[in-house]
Amino acid sequence: MLCKYLVTLSVLVSSAVSAECGWGTMDGNPTRLVGHRGEKAFMPEHTLGSYHMAAFESADYIEPDVVVSKDGVLVISHNEWLSDTTNIASIPKFADRKRSFSFKGKYININRTDFWIFDFTYAELQEIKVVQEKFFPYRPQYFNNDFSILSVDNYLDLIANVSTTMNRTFGIIPELKSPELFNYLNPTPNGRWFEDSLLSILNKRGFGANQPPASDPLMDEGDLLNQVMNIKPANYKAPNYKRAAIQSFDPETCQYLATQTKIPIVFLNNVTPMLFTPKGLDLISSFSKIFSMDKEILLTGPEVFFTLDKVAINQTEIAEMGGFLMPEQLMAEAHKRGIAMVPFTLNDSRQKLNYFCSQGRDPYTKFCPTNRKEEMYYYFNLGVDYMFVENIFEAQMLRLAFDYKVRYGIDA
Ligand SMILES: *[C@@H]1O[C@H](CO)[C@@H](O)[C@H](O)[C@H]1NC(C)=O
Ligand SMILES: *[C@@H]1O[C@H](CO)[C@@H](O)[C@H](O)[C@H]1NC(C)=O
Ligand SMILES: *[C@@H]1O[C@H](CO)[C@@H](O)[C@H](O)[C@H]1NC(C)=O
Ligand SMILES: *[C@@H]1O[C@H](CO)[C@@H](O)[C@H](O)[C@H]1NC(C)=O
Ligand SMILES: *[C@@H]1O[C@H](CO)[C@@H](O)[C@H](O)[C@H]1NC(C)=O
């Protein structure tokens, strides 16, 4: 699809870029929505409830975070510790398991006193129940203690089950958390026990063999309302592959995975300035075709973001790598290299926006979103290929409204 981009001069929904026709994503499809930890705006994250809700909200992908139990079972939790998201502190028989633990790797640094998931066997983990994080008061606590910690196999069964009952495709997008730690705890000759274990599970279920060659349409035509309501067009053919991607913040894990599987690799990074340059993107494209970063980098540009985030910038190195790319160039240069771009995380509208500019700490960035619609439209206009979202239904409705606007000229 040929589209031209115009800079709108309207002061309100911004000095942002707007598409003259269609979506500015790499393949012209609507931005894909990834349910962050399932639907954690309403359900305790990473539970059957959270994943089912993400499916009912028609998320394109449903995200689990993968860690490992004491006896080597791949299980799902965002943290390696249990106190924030489970009822562990109220289980007397486990009280003596609390301990301080520290681990410093190249890419991770853990140091806290807590209950650690890798101190519990899978059977013991089944005695623990998941609760909603307390930090976000509007999130319902009704479902606390209803759900258990899942294994990766439980998650994959659930996705397969809802795909069958709803007769539609949901993408899986597991993130390997702290590979350095879990490979250290589970030593093997190649030092890649964690990656190999996940791949073996996915390969057994046919994910490895059957990946799309390039473009992967959500449906054979892009009618989003039908997609949300699961009404398939007459010419619809279910994909003959399994929609999947594997994510990690660890670049060496991503590099290793890229040599072992056809499943697309999502490289996550919000700490390495030199990646946000032309040569940085060259480097990424050698092992990852999906690059995901703090959404703010795509708003302020890398220089302002890393400066305000107090990440040291080596200007000599940045110059050698071709200089920082501002958001629109970053998108264009990434797409030129076949890299899809993915901001994390677009929050529920009941949460305050916490951009540096919304906190009054960023005088440089001209456009500062003031609500979720402005925020989502900014990233849609930029042509991001996927986004991690919470309150998926809100995001769906805004995506639908944006779709009407760019494809049919109807302002919602
Ligand atoms: C871990 O944190 C504690 C308390 O903040 C500190 O005293 C200790 O030195 C830290 N340990 C390591 C290994 O960094
Ligand atoms: C998936 O469906 C099978 C067969 O009905 C059932 O035994 C299993 O418990 C289901 N698993 C999940 C996680 O939904
Ligand atoms: C699932 O959807 C496909 C595509 O629309 C359709 O051909 C098929 O009959 C559906 N299967 C069921 C069990 O409804
Ligand atoms: C900055 O980068 C240059 C070029 O890559 C390198 O030679 C130099 O050692 C770096 N400086 C620091 C402080 O890391
Ligand atoms: C948005 O969501 C992310 C991930 O859940 C969280 O870390 C961040 O604090 C949230 N932002 C706000 C303003 O609550």
Number of domains: 1
Average of per-residue pLDDT values: 92
Rounded to an integer in angstroms, the radius of gyration calculated over CA atoms is 21 Å
Distance N to C terminus:
23 Å
Beta percentage is 5-15%
Strand order of the largest sheet: 11-4-3-17
Approximate helicity band: 25-40%
Give me the secondary-structure category: alpha/beta
State the CATH superfamily name. Phosphatidylinositol (PI) phosphodiesterase
Oligomer: single chain
Fold-level CATH name: TIM Barrel
In the CATH scheme, the class would be Alpha Beta
* Structure ligands: 2-acetamido-2-deoxy-beta-D-glucopyranose
Low-confidence segments, given as residue ranges, are: 1-19
EC number: 3.1.4.46
Keywords: Glycerol metabolism, Hydrolase, Signal
Enzyme class: hydrolase
InterPro entries: GP_PDE_dom, PLC-like_Pdiesterase_TIM-brl
Write up what this structure looks like.
This protein is an alpha/beta fold and 412 residues long. It has one domain: Phosphatidylinositol (PI) phosphodiesterase (TIM Barrel), CATH 3.20.20. The chain has 14 helices and 17 strands. The strands form six sheets. It has a four-stranded parallel sheet with strand order 11-4-3-17, with helices on one face. Strands 13-14-15-16 form a four-stranded parallel sheet, with helices on one face. Helix 1 (48-56) runs parallel beside helix 3 (152-166) and helix 13 crosses helix 14. Bound molecules: 2-acetamido-2-deoxy-beta-D-glucopyranose (5 copies). One 2-acetamido-2-deoxy-beta-D-glucopyranose (NAG) is lined by residues 345, 347, 351-352, 354. One 2-acetamido-2-deoxy-beta-D-glucopyranose binds next to loops.
